[in-house]
Amino acid sequence: MTPIADRVRELRDAIRHHEERYYIHNAPEISDEAFDRLLHELEHLEAEHPELVTPDSPTQRVAGRPAEGFATVEHLVPMLSLDNAYNEEELRAFDERVRKGAEPGEAPVAYVAELKIDGLSIALTYDDGRLVRGATRGDGSRGEDVTINVRTIRAIPLALRNGPPGRIEIRGEVYLPRAAFDRMNREMEAAGEPLYANPRNTAAGTMRNLDPALVSKRGLSAFMYQVVTGASHLPVTYQAPETHAATLTAMRDWSLPVEPHWRRCEDINAVVAFCAEWADGRRTLEFETDGVVIKVDDLALREKLGATAKFPRWATAFKFPAQQAHTVLRRILVSVGRTGAATPYAELEPVLLAGSTISMATLHNADDVARKGVRDGDTVVIEKGGDVIPKVVAPILSLRPPDSVPWVMPTRCPVCDSVLRRDEEEVVWRCENLSCPARIVGSLVHFASRTAMNVEGLGASLVDQLIAQGLVRDFADLYALTVDQLEPLVVAPRDPKSDRAVPRKLGKVGRNVVDQIARSKSNDLSRLIYALGIRHVGEKVAATLARYFRTMDQLRAAPVEALQTAPEIGPVVAASVRAFFDEPRNGVLIDRLRDAGVNMTSQAPEPTDVPGPLAGKTFVLTGTMASMTREQATEALERLGAKVSASVSKKTSYVVYGEEAGTKLEKAQKLGVETLDEAQFHALIMKSTRNQEP
Ligand SMILES: [Zn+2]
């Protein structure tokens, strides 16, 4: 093999290793930047040597897009669903049935209890360790071929590590981690769009999206829990372990993601304890779970127990008690956000649910209200599951007042009375009046929010007052506010305990707010760009634009083509930014912000290619240093232009070693690569930093 081919293989191994650390074990060893560099080096080598590109290279996760929809695939072994158990009694009844089917029949049966992932079932096919297919469950016997999207999920290996030869099918669940879901919803909120209801539906919708590049950005993850055995299309070469516990361990060894909290339970008592433990414990997890899956551990016994037409007899799903409550829906109202989206919601008689008082529940959109058939005055079931805001599940028809009438979506904005409109393909109705007070309040609250200009104390109730008193009409007006104007205002924030609006004079807090507004003038340009509320410009895009264009003037002047040259800025965002600045009123607004003293430049490090003093040098770090973490060392090196690599090769310039350095140090010595101990490393960094200063 050529040295280049060697390096390519080395990079792929290193990248998979770090993907596994990051996406499966949640314990990264290197910074995101260092990881990106590995990936870039690989991309670069593959671009120069296209003959070395293989389908399982990590650079090939996003590859092409399906021409028209997804093909239907047949599951050779049907994907059965599981029978449910809702309480301890039903769990014990399940155990009894299992023990009856076992021989001699009386001894306790061991189970494996796993957290049930609230996502989308998936079947992966590996041929000689290479991922060749990913299919959705569909109706159990027929699903959709979503390989192209499955490949973008970084927790899922494109190639198994020491996997079995021949063909093997692995089943599991694709899910959206809470953090990724929250991030998506923050972006929706910032864009003034209705929020996604829950991670499960969002994950399912994402998997069926026809744009793998978009799927890749959403941050889906996966847990696998089954190796399909006993199917005619599977090779006899794979010697399945004898227990489910051993299967889970084997899958993990193949570098597949396996949810780590599973437990082998000696008998049903241990299973009951596991379920009780996680009914509360689940709130600390990074993903949504709605129950526990209980499977017979002994695979031979499973075979013997078999399946009914619908369910396997050797497994059941325990459902955590749902967090539901009944209350009266006073009326269905419509709120208008800063993009004009008009969203129906339910005003409720306050009720206690999962530890907090609830007086509002979402109804998503007009279609949702129609589907559920809820009406003003109905007694309704509300539920708090994985959803952000509690939702109305259904009306209790037997309690419906005799005079109730079906609800209809208003045709006019409840705030400014403009006619509401919606595009044919959208579910969202919008108020298109740019000066609608609801939209202005929404955009000012966004401007002041923590992730935008971060003006503490400037929430919805104060903004309402500022507008009502005629003190503020736009962002720039905020910077002219005085303490004397603010102190007498009466605001009515909601008390989260009693869930009541409590009016009070702003008083001394007024000075605070004025100070906060003044402080916000020196914010970085990225915050300002985000605060402006340009459609499709979330926090991350704003940061990119600020870093790339440096000043508001350069950004304002950039034509669409120039905007698109910034990293990760596509045509939709570019057009939206251009349209924002082309609106003369927005230009005036920005000039007034500048006159008020608001900072218009970026302080973020410039993305230049100016070579640092260590440019061209590749470092490998091994062992633990006393004075800095590996991330800090990596950062210091990258600031100086050096590359940090995960593995030692002849091309490595230096291997830096700390305590408990391992094989990398040995390899360096074998290859004759220069090595640095912690003190020597510090000396080099100090010297290079001095050289870098102008
Ligand atoms: Zn309106």
Could you walk me through the main structural features you see in this protein, from its secondary elements to its overall organization?
The structure is a single chain. The chain has 694 residues and is of the alpha+beta class. The chain folds into six domains: 3-60, Helix Hairpins (Orthogonal Bundle), CATH 1.10.287; 84-177 and 206-319, D-amino Acid Aminotransferase, Chain A, domain 1 (2-Layer Sandwich), CATH 3.30.470.30; 324-431, Nucleic acid-binding proteins (OB fold (Dihydrolipoamide Acetyltransferase, E2P), Beta Barrel), CATH 2.40.50; 437-522, DNA polymerase, domain 1 (Orthogonal Bundle), CATH 1.10.150.20; 525-595, DNA polymerase, domain 1 (Orthogonal Bundle); 618-692, BRCT domain (Rossmann fold, 3-Layer(aba) Sandwich), CATH 3.40.50.10190. The chain is built from 25 helices and 26 strands. The strands form seven sheets. Strands 12, 13, 14, 15, 16, 17 and 18 form a seven-stranded antiparallel sheet that branches. Helix 1 packs antiparallel against helix 2 and helix 12 packs across helix 13. The chain is globular, with a radius of gyration of 29 Å. The protein starts with a helix and ends with a helix. It binds zinc ion. The site of zinc ion (ZN) has 9 residues, from loops.
